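Appendix B. Raw example, untouched.
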Amino acid sequence: MAQKGFIRVGFVEKIEPAQLLGDFLGSLGTEAGAVTIFTGRIKGNIEGKKVNSLVYEAAEPYSTQSLEKIAREELEKNGLLGIMIYHKKGEAFPGEPVLFIAVASVSRKEAMHGLSTVLERVKHEAYVWKLEKREDGDYWIIGDSKRVPKKDS
């Protein structure tokens, strides 16, 4: 039987959703009645402009600690059975997976709510810096959609 309330988080060079999902499912016990997953990918077009790549920067160990804090708090608050959060670091290209989140619980309502809450917290609280390289210049992404042009130094 799997350990109750497990957490797995980190920053990796490559997100492999099928492998991560397999690892997550293999860690669950029979009490898990629901598993929800989210895989975030790089969009190829933003505001009508071609996206060439995104560069993700993490300040370790603080970045991983921020993911751990989110997972631990949501696990306890929502009575979840397991949470997995893996985020890409380095450069990523359109269509490439960059974020994988899996949440397990006894029932679907808790799993759906838990996934949504974890995702929003990762987007707003994780220590990750994103530089979007587009055909019309480079932009720092702040929050969900605010873009600030990168100033050349």
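End of appendix B.
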